[in-house]
Amino acid sequence: MIKFLLNNNIVSTLLPAGTLLLDFVRYHQHLHGTKIGCREGDCGACTVLVGSLNTQGQVVYRSATSCLMPIGNAQGKHIVTVEGTNIQGLNFIQQAFSNEGASQCGFCTPGFMVSLAGFCLQANEEPTYEQGIDAVNGNICRCTGYKSIERAIGTIANKLTTRQQESAVDFAVNNQILPEYFKRIPDKLMALQTELSVVPNNPASPMSIVGGGTDLYVQKHDSMTERNDLYFAQRESHLSEIAQVNDLCFLGSGTTVTDIAESPIFKAHFEEWQAVIKLVSSTPIRNMATLAGNFINASPIGDFSILFLALDAQLQFASMGNTQARQLPLRKLYKGYKQLDKQPDEYVERIFFQLPDAQTKVNFEKVCKRTHLDIASVNTAICLHLHSDGTIAKAGLSAGGVAPVPAFLPKTSAYMEGKVPSRQLLNEVCALAQTEIAPIGDVRGSVAYKRLLLDQLIEAHFIKLFPKL
Ligand SMILES: Cc1cc2nc3c(=O)[nH]c(=O)nc-3n(C[C@H](O)[C@H](O)[C@H](O)COP(=O)(O)OP(=O)(O)OC[C@H]3O[C@@H](n4cnc5c(N)ncnc54)[C@H](O)[C@@H]3O)c2cc1C
Ligand code: FES
Ligand code: FES
Q1: By the 8 A CB rule, do 340 and 334 touch?
Q2: SS in 3 state form for 288-332?
Q3: Which of 383, 345, 339, 338 lies closest to 365, judged by CA?
Q4: Contact call for residues 270 and 236 (beta carbons, < 8 A)
Q5: For residue 105, which ligand has an atom nearest its CA?
Q6: 103: CA distance to ligand 3 center in Å?
Q7: Rounded distance between C-alpha atoms, residue 325 and residue 323, angstroms
Q8: Residue 45 Cα, ligand 3 centroid: separation in angstroms?
Q9: pLDDT tens digits for 185-227?
Q10: 107 CB less than 6 Å from ligand 3?
């Protein structure tokens, strides 16, 4: 049985756990404010908020596209649809949109309302206009024009700057941004968690683990929605932890891109971390998508597969059946197009890698048809450990979109070791990398174009990491 808080009411259902939240709220709860646009996570018309209790007993709200979210991932959570943001009269966000003429046909508007409610509930000290814009980066409007929407967001962000000691929820309730029931949600969720602690995550049969569902529900929508034999990694608290032990970082396989984006460990060890994260999908998709899902989906252009190949991440597999737990370098996972060194009953439990130190330089580059919110034509990452004299001690270079798998380039990586970074080395690295790739021409570019892109992105690595050269 699945049970969660939907707006101000507890709901429970015996529908298959793979049923989409979008269909559940529209067809079973008759909440039609949540719209269906693309059903592929691209338009934001179906946006909801997902509130989860953290270890301090506070509710953390993140936006999600309900068209890719199984109700199994809603278990024990607070799900907020646009109806759940209503108060008597227009709320502050709705009024700001109305004042600026930021809604014409109105089809996209519920999605914007929900994403901006999520912005107002962010716990950060000083919410900014830029964060408001980021909150709606997964929402598309086809008829109003974004300038009026941006002005409305400006008004909302200004209002939030007047927040002082109050919590985000208290401020939102006291300023007609959200309804009063939000104040009682932590207690309700706490009681629900206690009740659900005895309900097991379904025992999984092989191949049925779900992370955020952002690949599964795009690729296998029809079969997924019928399934009741799914195992939800994000429901296991031990799979959602990010921890540092000495110079190693351990990530539970249920950690999302947003968890990683906000992790103090990542912020402390990676320069320009936020810029890298902004190159990956949109806010609601980042809130759902897991690292393990990115690795196992095995897309040749998976951004995190490419980054973690360069970092030489290790996978710890656990088993649902007879296979023994084991460890495997990510660099050995990919055997061919969507073919993995993984038994059907194995799942990724944890991922770990060595955190970069002062002598380590890491860079990620990605070219898409548009800069943000797009999948890569070609992406690449590099990780160089330097000796104190500047010689490269250890190198890892990976590239996506240039082979049937997310590719680690072993010969080029090994060639760099023992050498001093120079223009000549860059030329040699570019030439050698070309011998290790086999791109195909497709909608994202011809073979020649992808080869040229990789050349230029390797040059970009060197420019970023060794600007004095
Ligand atoms: C609109 C949109 C934009 C996107 N943009 C990008 C982008 O910019 N860059 C990018 O790289 N990707 C992008 N993606 C793809 C996707 O979001 C990522 O690949 C994501 O990391 C997948 O994670 P998930 O948790 O949602 O995977 P799921 O869909 O839950 O699972 C994917 C696969 O991994 C398996 N799996 C999940 N967890 C485990 C585990 N612990 N052990 C074993 N197997 C497991 C599942 O069984 C399934 O086979 C985008 C997707 C959408 C819909
Ligand atoms: S319907 Fe378009 S993102 Fe869900
Ligand atoms: S108001 Fe029509 S799509 Fe946005």
Answers
A1: yes
A2: HCEHHHHHHHCCCCCHHHHHHHHCCCEEEEEECCCCCCEEEEHHH
A3: 383
A4: no
A5: 3
A6: 6
A7: 7
A8: 10
A9: 999 999 999 888 777 776 666 668 999 999 999 999 888 999 9
A10: yes
Residue 38 Cβ inside 6 Å of ligand 2? The answer reads: yes
Q: How far apart are CA 44 and CA 63, in angstroms?
A: 10
Query: Tens of pLDDT along 222-235?
Result: 889 999 889 999 98
Length of the chain (residues):
469
Is ligand 2 within 6 A of the CB of residue 43? yes
What are the structure tokens assigned to 301, written together?
């252009």
CB-neighbour burial class of residue 57 (10 A; exposed 0-12, middle 13-18, buried 19+):
exposed
Cα separation of 412 and 434, whole Å? 9
Pocket flag, ligand 3, residue 142 (CB < 6 Å)? yes
Domains and CATH numbers, the chain: 2-196 (3.10.20.30), 209-354 (3.30.465.10), 360-465 (3.30.390.50)
Ligand 1 closest atom vs CA 214 = 26
Single pTM value for the model: 0.96
| Residue 115: both structure tokens together | 């994403």
| Other Cβ atoms within 10 Å of 162 Cβ, number | 8
Cα 362 to Cα 17, 124, 271, 401, distances in angstroms: 40, 28, 8, 20
Tokens describing residue 340: 């993995």
